[in-house]
Each structure stands twice: as structure tokens, then as C-alpha cells.
Amino acid sequence: MRMQPRQEILDIWRATVRSCLRNGEWDWGGRSGSNSISDAEQLLTMLLPATKIPVLSLDDPDRIDEEVIEALGAIGGAIEIPRRLVKIMTEYFVRYTDDSGAPTFGGGSYLTPVQGGPDLTDEQRSMDVVDSFAVSVTLTLATIGFVKIYRPSTQRADLRAQLDKLEEMASLRLTAAMVGLLRSFSTSVFAATDEFGIRLCDMVNQDELPRREVVAALRAQLRDTMASLRNVVVGSGQVTEDLDNSEMLFECGWSWGTIAGADEVETTEPIGVQREGSAENAPYLYFTVIAVDAIDDLNSERTRLLGLLNEEQQRLFRILQLRWELTRRYWATVATFGNRRRWPIEDIPWRTTDGDRTDYYTLQATSLAVKGLVASGRGGDEEFGRIGNVLVELAQRGRITRRASPNEPALVVHAPGKQVTLNDATSKPIMTWNVNEFSTVLLQRATTVAGLLNSARRRSELLELADEVWEHLLLRRIPEGRHRGLWDHAGGAFPELAPLPEAPSWYLTERVVQALVNAGQLLWERPFPRAGSLATYAQDLIDEAEYVFDRELMSGTFAGEAMQRVMRSIRATLRRAQSLVDDQPGTSAALASTLLLQLNDITTGQQKASEGI
Predict the structure, then answer these.
(1) Which of 253, 357, 498, 529 could form a disulfide with 490 if both were Cys (CB 3.0 to 4.6 A apart)?
(2) Separation CA 534–CA 593 (nearest Å)
(3) pLDDT tier at 525 (50, 70, 90 boundaries)?
(4) How far is CA 130 from CA 36, 103, 514, in A?
(5) Secondary structure of the chain: what % helix, strand, coil (to 5)?
(6) How many CB atoms neighbour CB 491 within 10 A?
(7) What CA–CA distance (Å, rounded) separates 5 from 52?
């Protein structure tokens, strides 16, 4: 991997501090102004790496790395950095809490009018959005974890009081966000013969079977999912239509906001009034992926080990978990339906049941497909290799790894991006949501799939793709001014596509950081794929080295204090080689080879000494 995640993250931190600190105060807002999502993304640019990559942690002054201190020097030293972050995080939670003390989740300036339509009202911009629920889950978990680790390192009463208040606000916002996700889940049921059913069947029917056979086969594969949907009784997403009817199909996932008419969720936490929803009861692929990723954070090892969820949040998570599992299972089934010729996800672009189609939707569907394959135990090198091939083709189609022509339609996914229409309960468009994260999502998917492959060669091929996408993203960094080193200047990669921006996009910058964190975790946590033949070779070398070593011990070769030190060194190296044989067989083989040469030199030296040479 030519990309260096740690160094790149440090460079982004330097750029973030330079961009956001003005006269010692944190400057909120970016290219899209200030809202609950953008400001959370701005904070996560700092907090995501600090809470997910141990060597970049900021929550213990005694463990902060010297290079990290240098990168954040404008904030202060090792003692000052976590204190200032506590102040900045507190500002965020106060900023997005209403007068009654309840958290707010409005989309604000990220919501835009329908083309040719009137400007949005303040009430529309304040509507709760799934993206805000999801990013709040990630931010609050990072905040609570930060506080739990930082608290033991300080004895100051005033600072401890600040930490208690910060944890209380973050925990309340986490509960409210989980409730919001429960009230935004959608199960859309339709007949196989109506327009939605016809589009779904056309998408999955890669073997050109009769429609009745396709419907029967799809329902058979989704039988367990349909049965489990009857257990969705809290919040939104309840099935009221008759799914037992052999002509009925469905989709499940998250809408763009709280579903119109969604029931309130009972909770013991004081989260305030649960606002009436406005979103249509239909899943949106973009918001479904965002929600599933957030629930992944709720289910992470870090969340469990640090005990980040209180008793009420654990109860809400168990309810969310059912929706999470059903969604992964549904989309993996649909994306990989039929296995003889090609999967639906390999038929680019992905077509949604409302008639929309774009390469970006294919990219999003790969995320749900991978999660579903992992969860069901169906994922192996062949399956993940097919997903990897889709990513390679998407990079070519998006002109990331192929030369682009001026004004080419394929470039729209980069700038201005995909416009997602947000509908009300009557399916009437009321506003839009802009998505231009194609390159960053592609980078994240490539590293994720690479980490799941057991074949070292296939893994290297996908990491090569990741490096090419990263080189593309480097061209899109803002090149000059106070915001240099942040994103996004699409014109840097595609001249004349977009002018040089006056402010950074925290939406895209945070997603770049997400991708780098994902790459860093690949290097930090996941072992290199084991090559069976290489591991066998390494074990054979170790066995021979142990045999030669034991024989020399029997012959008394290691008599004397100096030779005893050599013996202890050989024994330690043998143990090291044996411990690496599964995860790093090449390194293990190299160590064993070195030992065999050393033992040969010792044996030869002893023979020459005995012969008087």
C-alpha cells in the first residue's frame, strides 16, 4: 500500500487546526454553512482517528505521540489538547440542543430546494434527517469513549465537572438518535405486478427467467426475512400488508427522515418531544447505508469493552439490531440473487424501484452486499472477488482510473454529485439532498473488501486500486490558502469541472478521514492473508532449525558462558518464528532461514576446532 494512513491523517489534522482555529476559538461551518451534520463531521475529522487508531489517541496526555503533539501544536501541548477538545465538543452539544434541553437533528443547509421550486422554510430545514441521527451515533460514542478514558488522568474538580456534563449531553443525544433511527425505518410492500415490483424483478432477473419464477425464487430466499419483519413492532416499519400473498414483494431500510405517522418510542430518557415525521414510508439506499454503518458502531468491540451504552440504550440497540440484521440480509440477497451468469450488482448501474439509476447506487449496494455476505457466512474469496471486480469497473466508469474527456456525463458523480429527491408521505418531492462522495466511498469499500480476502494476490490487487483512488483524491485537495490540505477541489482532478472553493467541505473531508481510518485499521488489526504453501514452507524450516538446534544441544556445542548467550538468543528467535507462522509466514521463514545459517556456522566452527584447523 503506497498510501500512508497515519501520515496522511496527521497532515489532515494540521490542515484542520489551521482552518478552524481563529484567535484561539473554534470556527464552526464550512462550504455548506453550519448545521448539525456538517459540524459533527468537522469534529469527527479529529475524533474518528483518535478513537479508532491507538497510535493516534488523544484521550490520555501520557500516551499522546510526539508527532501528534506537533501536528496539533496550534491547540497546545499534551496536557492542553484533550482539554481544548472537551471544550469544543461541549460547544457542539450545546449548539444543537433546544431551549427545553432536547437534542435537535435538523438537516439545515444540507437540505436544498427542488429544482425550480421555492426556497425552503426554516421549518423544512429543521426537519429531522437520518444522516443527522447516524452521524450523532458515531460522534456521541466517540465522545463518551473519550471522556471515559480521559477522566482518570485528571484530578481537577472543575474539569471533572465539565467531563460529567459532556458525557451527560452526549448520552442524551445518543438515546435521541437511536430513537430517531427506530422511527425512520421503513418496510415498503408492493405487488410484483405494479411498477415497483416490475422494476425489482427486472433488476434481479439476470438469468432471464419467467417473472413468476423470479418472484417465487426471490420470496423463497427472503422467507426468513419476511417472517422476522412481523417482529418489528416498535417505532416505524411495521408490515400491515399481507406478505403471505405469493404476489407480494418488499424492500426494507431507512427513509430520509422520521416516517410520517411513525409511533413514538417509549424511553425512560428525557429526550424531549418526539416530533411528527414527514418522510415517505420507503427506503432510500443512501440513508440505509448511512444508518447501517452507524449501527455497526453501536455493535463494535470498542463500544462493548468500554461499556459506552447505558441500560436503556442497550435495550434500544437490541430493537435496532433486528432492523440492522434484516436490512443486511435483504440487500445481500437482492444484490447477489441468482448465481449462474451474473449477480444483479454486477449489472451496472443499479436501478432502484422508483426508476432511478446511477453508478453511485451500485457502489452503495456493494456495502450492504458485503455486510450481508459476512453476516450469513456466505462470503469467501470468490464472492468478495466478484465484489472487488465491481469496484474496479466503477473506478473506470467514474474516470478515476481512466482518462476523462471534457464535459463527460460520468463526471457528474464527482461534481455537482447525485441529487437525491426527498419525498413526503404522499411521495411528493419537497426538497433534495446532494451526494458527491463517490471517490471516498470507493476508497473505503476497496480497503474493506481487501481486508476480507484470504488470497494475498487478490488483496494486493484491491489495495492497488485503493492507491489509485487515493492518488485521485490527492489531486482534489484544496491547494492553497488557510484551508489547504482539506477537501474538496474537484477541479484539481478534472480541470474546469469546478472552481477553486473558498471553504472546505466537511462532508467530504470527514469521509476521506473515514477511508484513511479504514485503511489504518486494515494495517493495524487484520493479519496478512495466510498463503498455505508459504506457511507450510516456513513450518518445515522451523522444524529443521529446531532439530539441528536440539542435536547441537545434545552434542554439548553450547558449553561456556558465551555460547549459552547464543543458545538463549536462538531459542528466543525460534519461538518468535513459530508465533509468526500463521499470520506472517514469510517473516517466519526468513527468521528460520537465518537460524539455519547461524547453526550451520556454529556446527562448521565446532568441526574445524575439533580437527585443529
Answers:
(1) 498
(2) 13
(3) low
(4) 11, 14, 19
(5) 60, 10, 35
(6) 17
(7) 12
Per-residue model confidence (pLDDT) at position 613: 47
Least Cα distance to 486 among 474, 496, 498 occurs for 474
pLDDT of residue 564: 79
Residue 575, phi then psi, degrees to nearest 5: -65, -40
Report CA dihedral (136, 142, 143, 147) to the nearest 10 degrees: 160
* pLDDT confidence of residue 297: 95
Cβ(71)–Cβ(56) below 8 Å: no
pLDDT tens digits, 29-45: 999 899 999 999 999 99
Bridge partners of residue 128, in order along the sequence: 106
Confidence at residue 306, expressed as pLDDT on a 0 to 100 scale: 94
Overall average pLDDT of the 434-461 stretch: 90
- Closest by CA to 101, choosing from 181, 178, 175, is 175
The three grid cell numbers given for residue 24, joined into one nine-digit string: 484561539
Q: What is the pLDDT of residue 532?
A: 61
The residues, ordered by sequence, that sit 6+ positions from 280 with a Cβ below 8 Å of its Cβ are 255, 259, 260, 423, 424, 425, 426, 427
Report cis status (omega within 30 of 0) of the bond before 152.
Answer: no
Nearest of 554, 547, 560 to residue 592 by alpha carbon: 547
172-227 pLDDT per residue, tens: 999 999 999 999 999 999 999 999 999 999 999 988 888 899 999 999 999 999 98
Question: Which of helix, strand or coil describes residue 27?
Answer: coil
C-alpha cell at 381: 474469496
Q: What is the overall mean pLDDT for the chain?
A: 90
Full 3-state SS string of 518-549: HHHHHHHHCCCCCCHHHHHHHHHHHHHHHHHH
User: How far is 242 from 533, CA to CA, in rounded Å?
Assistant: 54
pTM of this structure: 0.87
Give me the amino acid identity at 143: T
| Whether pLDDT at 611 is above 60 | no
Which DSSP string corresponds to 263-330?
PPPP-SS-----PPP-B-SS--HHHHHHHHHHHHHHTSHHHHHHT-S-HHHHHHHHHHHHHHHHHHHH
- Could you tell me the three cell numbers for 208? 432471464
